[in-house]
């Protein structure tokens, strides 16, 4: 079988990114006892963007948002998942991830490699309407999971409501409506006793 070089590199990339299914996150899935993996997380974010796009502060190119959400965590194949509240891990997070981005996207033909790298960089910069809305999805999804799971991750790692508020405040940049909803979730979690205001 003769496969042209461009197709061969695309298939190689698709095989490589299957590793995303093996990267566990700290958040448990809603309808089960196991941890969510990065591939599931990315799929869920893409669906959230599709369904919730009407709540974006500004008009967005939804295809671009979905592309960003499918691409943004691929770097964790090499860099690993950095827990949202791990301040030490965040110190060198960007350095680890940009190195991973160049390796992974570099597998692709040059034009596609450049497109995916630029999407990843745009998401990280959080300056465009699309990046801000995509980031809102990335913040909101684990918030919903934790609320549905009786604060599982929050309690396991002794996370406070102040930390959760500070971490998720940038939801507002993409959607004021969803930030209001997020604050209601956080307050409800405090009221239910599944999220504490201070470390015990």
UniProtKB/TrEMBL annotation:
The keyword Metal-binding applies. InterPro entries: HD_domain, YfbR/HDDC2. Pfam families: HD_3. Keywords: Hydrolase, Metal-binding. Residues 17-179 form the HD domain. This is HD domain-containing protein. It comes from Paenibacillus taichungensis.
């Amino acid at each position: 079988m003769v496969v042209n070089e461009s197709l061969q590199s695309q298939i190689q990339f698709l095989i490589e990114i299957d590793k995303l299914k093996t990267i566990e996150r700290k958040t448990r899935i809603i309808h089960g006892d196991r941890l969510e993996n990065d591939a599931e997380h990315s799929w869920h974010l893409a669906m959230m963007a599709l369904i919730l796009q009407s709540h974006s502060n500004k008009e967005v190119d939804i295809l671009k948002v979905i592309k960003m959400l499918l691409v943004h965590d691929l770097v964790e194949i090499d860099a690993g998942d950095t827990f949202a509240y791990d301040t030490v891990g965040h110190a060198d997070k960007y350095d680890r991830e940009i190195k991973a981005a160049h390796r992974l996207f570099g597998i692709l033909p040059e034009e596609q490699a450049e497109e995916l790298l630029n999407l990843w960089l745009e998401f990280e910069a959080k300056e465009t309407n699309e990046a801000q809305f995509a980031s809102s999805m990335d913040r909101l999804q684990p918030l919903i999971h934790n609320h549905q799971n009786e604060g599982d991750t929050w309690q396991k790692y002794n996370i406070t409501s102040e930390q959760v508020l500070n971490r998720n405040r940038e939801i507002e940049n993409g959607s004021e409506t969803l930030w209001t909803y997020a604050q209601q979730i956080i307050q409800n979690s405090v009221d239910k006793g599944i999220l504490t205001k201070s470390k015990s």
